[in-house]
Amino acid sequence: MTSVIVLAPMAGWLAPLGEVPDAAFAEGLVGEGAAIDPTDAVVRAPFDGVVVSLPASRHAVTVRSAEGVEVLIHVGLETVALNGAGFTVHVAERAAVKAGDPLLTLDLDIIADGARSLMSPVIVVGGGAATAIDPGRSVRAGEPILTVVIGDDAVLGGQGETLATTVRAPLPHGLHARPAARIAACAKGFDARVTLRLGERRADAASLVAMMGLGVRDGDELGVEASGRQAAEALEAVRALILSGLEEARGHEATVAVAPVKAAPVTGEDGELILSGVTAAPGLVVGRAVRLRQSEIVVAEAGRGVAAETTALRQALSAVRAQIERAAAGGGAHRRAILAAHLAFLDDPGLIETAERHVAEGRGAGFAWREATRAGAALFRALDDPRMAERADDLLDLERQVLIALSGEAAPAPVAIGPGSIVVADDLLPSQLMALDAARLAGICTARGGPTSHVAILAAAMGVPALVAVGEGLERVEDGVLLVLDADGRQMIAAPSAARQARAQSASAARERRRADARALAGDECRTADGVRIEVFANLGDAAEAAPAVAGGAEGCGLLRTEFLFLERETAPDEDEQLAEYQAIADALDGRPLIVRTLDAGGDKPLPYLPTPPEENPALGLRGVRSGLHRPDILLTQLRAICRVRSRGAVAVMLPMIASVAEVRQARAMLDVAVAETGGATPLLGVMIETPAAAMTTDRLAPAIDFISFGTNDLTQYALAMDRQNAGLAAQLDGLHPAVLRLIARSVEGAGALKWIGVCGGLASDLTAVPILIGLGVRELSATPSMVAEVKAVVRGLTLEDCRAMAAEALAQDGAEAVRALAGERLAALLQPRAVGAVA
Asked: Which is it for strands 594-597 and 651-655: parallel, antiparallel or unpaired?
């Protein structure tokens, strides 16, 4: 063991770190150390070393000693917003310095005017454990203020050498819980300590809270450092993982963050209270308000002894972990993913260490856990990122669950709600929503929250309309009052007028009748009114979705997204594991067709074991079939598993992101090898038409394939040259644009007599688009499972002549808006008995 003395970088009052008026510093989430309230205008080097970080804002500087100890000197709080005003720099990054050398000169008047506080944390962010030397005194620059104890494996040289690299992080949604959990899992697999650095901020890669607190954004340059016996292996593994992008999907199933609406409540006709908010899940319902209030759980600050409180905390964490694992065993993919993130928080060493430090200081387990979670929540909310701010709710959810477990009492019974209840609350926690009776829950309205919160994701998956961020005016809504929740229109109306209530009930009833009629006939074969067979399949994301989709009327699976087998793991699934999943889906389909899309990795679905080089635009890079051909071992294993599936119905392989005949021929050759090696039946082979190249050359592709299916989401973004993850272009990115429709028409013409011509993209679930697609020659639609029955109902009300006429008119329009207006008008006339009236 060795130690390093850190000298005061400036004169002033030396205070314990806990007195810093910022939760992230005070709770030690950034690191251990002390703070100085400065009286000196010069910031000096705390020891001999090298300047390793000096951001453009100049408000902080990090110096590393020869022993590997790194000290962050953060001048004041919230001084980054000064953009360098009040700071004069005397050194540059990588400059060697001696103890006492000037680093910065401060204009304290300017800084004091713009800072929340001049209290300046001096934090050890790497290399050892720090202890403050007699805090609570006046110090001069150069006096010892910290002792840093270094473990043997932290000393440079031998197995303890600290290795470092930099990587530009392709993280479209920042370093949130899921990618942070993957980094933590990767880092824990090595005998090494891994640290991430963004500017002057550092985080232990074992801590989700610390990593998320960095505030990493898409394209930021991250420093990665590793020390210990397996430092080299850990560094390369974490670097490759970050380069892979970490996110399951660039924008997949994510909602663009929207600033909360601040409109004040208004009074409508007959004294209505009208509140505006942000749509979290679409829909329109009329129901009674059920007020959900959450009481604060009282905890004792003083503990009953360190041993007793530590045991109590660990037992409570274990109990909540088991409870979440049981809950994760059921429900859909969204529910499981959210609960997995909660489990990762429960294992977060930063949270646990903070709580245990409070226990060691004599606090009770409940008080300690609350302090730790609230410090983490404050850290997230302080970031300039709505997604990160919404993750604070996950921490508060876990806080409450652990405090209930610590109480030794049974969890409170879920709130009893009657049929047609609209739950109103200041905010709602994921565990509270999952505890409600979904059959009786009509809608959700909260004063706070956001459209990317886990509650919003759950509500959308449940099909429950949800409006969030309506503001303090929600307090005026009394329990039991009648509500019109129009999430589509971003409004909630309390005590609606008789006329508005009648309009809303009529529209809601008409919508429900249409759905009920559709569900009643969902199991029937789908044909147009003049007898043309249109197959309506379902897109599936895992085995659990297959049986419910069949029950909902799906006539097969038109797109099995196999990524569910490849994500959230460090190695690719083997052949037998894949076969078990594919066979389970085929069995659930009971002889109905199964179209298996090969792994669509890369781009928006990076994998740690399939690393790709950094790409300026991953949507145009090594993705889809290209990634499979890049790693033929993974693709061949998947093809072998598909060939071994046994089904009375057709089993097909579908290749994503095809752009040339050569790619199809390479894949066909690999499929032939898989058939020969397994002795299985030869599956049908088809391609997704997602690129303009494939759409324009379908006639060249047709001799080598059995079917095509249009992936309209990607086809639209490539045809219109608009990134579908760009929120500013969302309104213009519409698959009913005439350019996209003309590509579909050209491709259908080139397909000739192929067995299937289908659509598995978003347009297949768009009721307005259905007649146009049929008119263009599509004969199979693969929709989201919840839309299958309604798609079939629309098809039954159409004739092929109607559809062809509508398609011809659509191709002649100038833009998507004109096509939608035309199709909406024509479809309403054709399906007039089921048309939904206006609500507002």
From this structure: parallel
Please pick, among 74, 176, 454, 737, the residue that the annotation labels catalytic.
Answer: 454
Instruction: Give the strand pairing for 278-281 and 201-204.
Output: unpaired
What tokens does 331 get?
A: 């429900």
Distance CA 620, CA 257 (A): 25
Q: What is the distance between the alpha carbons of residues 832 and 834, in angstroms, rounded to a whole number?
A: 5
Query: In this predicted structure, what is the pLDDT of residue 613?
Result: 56
Element containing residue 278 per DSSP (H, E): strand 278-281
Exposure of 743 in the CB half-sphere (CA atoms within 13 A):
26
Confidence of residue 30 (pLDDT cuts 50, 70, 90): low
State the greatest distance between any 2 C-alpha atoms of the chain, in Å, as a whole number.
92
Helix (H, G, I), strand (E, B) or coil at 45: coil
Single-letter residue type at 381: R
Evaluate if residue 38 carries a pLDDT over 90: yes
Query: How much is the pLDDT for 686?
Result: 95
Reply yes or no on whether the pLDDT at 665 is more than 70. yes
Secondary structure (3-state) at 481: coil
Give the whole-angstrom CA distance, residue 752 versus residue 772. Answer: 19
Using the 8-state DSSP alphabet, how is residue 148 labeled? Answer: E
Which of 56, 32, 41, 256 lies closest to 145 in space, CA to CA? Answer: 32
Please report which residue ranges of 132-244 form alpha helices under DSSP H.
Answer: 177-187, 208-212, 231-243
pLDDT, averaged across the chain: 81
Q: Is the separation of the CB atoms in 76 and 93 below 8 Å?
A: no
As a three-state string, the secondary structure of 545-572 is HHHHHHHCCCCCEEEEECHHHHCCCCCC
- Whether residue 760 lies in the annotated active site: yes
**454 flagged as catalytic:** yes
Spatial strand order in the sheet of 193-198: 163-168, 221-227, 193-198, 201-204
Q: The tokens of 674 are what?
A: 């898989």
Q: What is the pLDDT of residues 755-782, one digit of tens each?
A: 789 999 888 988 889 999 999 999 999 9
Check pLDDT > 90 for residue 250.
no
Residue 16: phi, psi to the nearest 5?
-60, 150
834 falls in which pLDDT band (50, 70, 90)?
very low
Rg for the chain, CA atoms, rounded:
30
Amino acid (1-letter code) at residue 768: T
DSSP code, position 269: G
CB burial string 298-337: b at 16+ within 10 A, e below: ebeeebeeeeebbebbeebbeebbebbeebbeebeebbbb
CB atoms within 10 A of CB 199: 20
pLDDT at 256: 34
Instruction: Indicate the angle between helix axes 333-346 and 386-407, nearest 10 degrees.
Output: 70
Beta bridge partners of 739: none
User: To 10 degrees, the CA torsion angle through 684, 688, 694, 695?
Assistant: 110
Token output for 328: 């994760």
Report, as an integer, the average pLDDT of 789-811: 94
C-alpha distances in Å from residue 487, one per residue of 277, 419, 451, 671: 8, 19, 12, 48
Structure tokens at 46: 């705390």
* pLDDT confidence bin for 642, thresholds 50/70/90: very high
Cα gap 291→276, rounded to integer Å: 18
Q: What is the pTM of this model?
A: 0.52
What one-letter code names the amino acid at 687?
V
- Give the 3-state secondary structure of residue 124: strand
Secondary structure string (H, E, C) spanning 147-170: EEEECHHHCCCHHHCCEEEEEECC
In residues, how long is the chain? 840
pLDDT band (50, 70, 90) for residue 730: very low
**What are the strands, taking DSSP E only, across 614-723?**
651-655, 684-689, 707-710
Say what the pLDDT of residue 29 is.
59
Residue 496 C-alpha from the chain's centroid: 36
Q: Which amino acid is at 777?
A: G
**Per-residue pLDDT, 568:** 61
Q: Which of 186, 557, 643, 760 is labelled catalytic? A: 760
pLDDT surpasses 80 at 329: no
